[in-house]
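Can anyone check this?
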Amino acid sequence: MVPAHRRGAARVHLDDAVRRHAARPRLRGPTAADAQGRRPDLPQGIGRVSEQGQVTHDDFDWEALRLEAVAARGHAYAPYSSYPVGAAALAEDGRVLTGCNVENAAYGVALCAECGLVSQLHITGGGRLTHFICVDKAGDVLMPCGRCRQLLFENGGPDLLLMTVSGVRRMDEVLPDAFGPDNLA
């Protein structure tokens, strides 16, 4: 038998913290098909897409990517640490991907911003990351934690460019001697 407090509309949901955002308008996320047409509602000028569909690195606009991370940070759920984090990346086909941290009362199951970003990469068609930036609650550049560096390596490879507190670095500089799929062969 189901207890009375677990029946009906009056039941209190454990996920009410997430539901508080239900009134916000939903934006359509970028897809792989959108990148070829250069959707006008995605930031333009972050990177150019060649005729082969690859991102070129000429005149890359790190500030525009940082602003995408700042916007993502605004959706973070960080009631325990009060430390919202946002991340943004560019995929090889021109898609702009974002993520934010989502905390949980069971601290070990909290999600870093990079987790949401990589999920969005795969939901919208897969591919490789080419540029990445992460920001803290002040909008300043933040280094990814070790777990997230491994996640970024898996989805961007050694050539992924990261904006770090020390400037632009390749992934193989940020995570030297990384463990990857080749180690499992």
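Reply from J.R.: I decoded it. The first helix runs from residue 16 to 19.
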